[in-house]
Amino acid sequence: MARILIVDDDTDFREGLAETVHDLGHIAYETGSCRTGLNALEQSQVDLIILDHRLGDADGLEFLRRMREFKRHIPPVIMLTAFATAAGTVEAIKLGAFDHLLKPVGRNDLAHAIERALRSSKGAAAPLKVAIEPGEVIGNSAPMREVLKLIGLASASNVTVLFTGETGSGKEVLARLLHGANMRAEAPFIAVNCAAIPAELLESELFGHVKGSFTGAVAHRAGRFRQARGGTLLLDEIGDMPLAMQAKVLRVIEDRRYTPVGAAQEESADVRLVAATHRDLGERVRNGHFREDLYHRLSVLPIRVPSLRERPEDVPALVNHFLAHFSHSEKHLSDGALDLLRTYPWPGNVRELRNLVERACVTVRGTTIAKSDVSTLLGPSKGIDISTADLLQLPLPDAISGLERTMIRRALNESQNNRAEAARRLGIHRQLLYAKLKEYGLD
């Protein structure tokens, strides 16, 4: 039997929570404000706190900050909110909340959270006085909220984080969110796409070079490690990094030092390292394409970013966000259009959705974007393989484009969005695949 303090200014909801807590075999204490809640915590021994995010005299985040003034043990806190944002979730976890749940919360979910919190002997962590820059992280689906909670935990330290997930799922946006929540937020955030830089230039790009160290080195150049000094360095698409370069990055991680190309003196690598990839690094380790020791050093805290088709409930919020950006809220989608977007498989993930909304804002003349408009923008296949019978009903140009779109989507899905592999499966050059992706709005 635990003593649970409920702090919520909604009387009916608070009483309902208290009844649930009693039914679960615990003792419930109720209060309706930040001030009275802190007084109750100071005067009574409490095992757990259930805290509302928005209170009449303050908010739950302020409650978390002020409760750290108590000298004795701080109980774990479960925060509830009806207005969840990415920044709010990360901030709550960073300030020490054990969990962050959406209202209305189901009885089973609450019981599970209480059980886990009471088992925890760590209580709440000390707060970090840093600012959060949420960027464009949109979504309150269960998979995304789990990601945000992990980011909140990771923000309290400089642990190396490995983001994995499909292309276009938002790995760099989340890495920027992690940087903004960390004590290094005032320092630079530098992102390097390891797949976009030729192998022979990658060492110079990361570590810099001195004048005359190789043909074309006409001046000293600071590398990305130096540019990110004191901040965060994101090694994006690290799964495509050449093996020789992997060994040098591993040395930097282990020794926190590196040598610019052609230099005699080492430099310190004072950066928070974050990596991201759409590849299965475990499989690449088994195939001999990725160093096992580097894999383990990078995946201290692995965070898998869900694809958009795994969180279709986030599609409306993302659509509204992009509409506000591209049309200043002048346009909106019909219910039928939204239903179509929810069921679409989104091989290009959030990036593909953003491109589609931008095209709709440009091409649709009225204020309402209808289902037929979205259907046209998605193309004849509407995200579904076109049968031979369907193709025979279309004009030749539409049939050809529909077949190409379907084959490209299938190749991308089968290759886990690896464009080089998709081009190989299709029997075409990568340059032609890139042109087709742009033509069909799949880039």
The CATH class of the largest domain: Alpha Beta
Oligomer: single chain
Read across the widest sheet, the strand sequence of neighbours is 2-1-3-4-5
User: Which second-level CATH architecture of the largest domain applies?
Assistant: 3-Layer(aba) Sandwich
Strand portion: 5-15%
**Overall body shape:** globular
User: What would the CATH topology of the largest domain be?
Assistant: Rossmann fold
The counted number of beta strands is 16
Number of structural domains: 3
The proportion of residues forming helix, as a percent range, comes to: 40-55%
Mean pLDDT: 84
First-last Cα distance = 56 Å
Radius of gyration: 25 Å
Helical stretch count?
20
Largest sheet: 5 strands, parallel
- Low-confidence runs (pLDDT<50, min 5 residues)? 122-135, 381-386
What structural category do the secondary elements indicate?
alpha/beta
CATH superfamily of the largest domain: P-loop containing nucleotide triphosphate hydrolases
Describe the fold and architecture.
- The protein has 443 residues and is of the alpha/beta class.
- The protein has 3 domains: 3-127, Response regulator (Rossmann fold, 3-Layer(aba) Sandwich), CATH 3.40.50; 145-304, 3-Layer(aba) Sandwich (Rossmann fold); 309-439, Helicase, Ruva Protein, domain 3.
- The chain contains 20 helices and 16 strands.
- A 5-stranded parallel beta sheet has the order 2-1-3-4-5, sandwiched between helices.
- α2 runs parallel beside α3, α18 (396-414) crosses α19 (419-426) and α19 packs across α20 (430-439).
- The protein starts with a strand and ends with a helix.
